[in-house]
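I'd like us to work through together how a protein chain folds, taking it slowly. To get us started, please write out a protein record for me. Label the sequence line and the structure token line clearly, so we can match residues to local backbone shapes. Once you have written the record down, we can walk along the chain together.
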Amino acid sequence: MIFFSYFGQKLTSKKMQVKMELFGRFIRHHRKQAGLTLTQLASQLNMDSANLSKVETGKRAFDARKLFRLAQVLNLDYQKVSNEYFSDRIAVMLADRPNYQSVLQLAEEKIRFYRQKYSTQIEFEF
């Protein structure tokens, strides 16, 4: 079993997968709205329907590498799909932490730092 260490807390991959049920519900809702069966969507994502069913019920994590294809097949904005996926992942990691707001605030500061450090500035001359 895979373990993730997050601020000294060990989370098993199973615990993370089980709790990602909100993204699974998101997929199921939009799959049905698109008029696709589980088998049809699974085929479009190069998955078997049993695994997609587990994703939809929160028993298996969705492969982030398939997010763009999922957005295409369901005719959704990629940014919306990506936001749903990553916000669910973050929520799973922080759900049991009593001080999750301070962790999120610190993460925002670190994001600003990394964006500033690694952004490339291009000067245009006319």
In short: The longest strand covers residues 3-6. The domain at 3-98 is CATH 1.10.260.40 (434 Repressor (Amino-terminal Domain)).
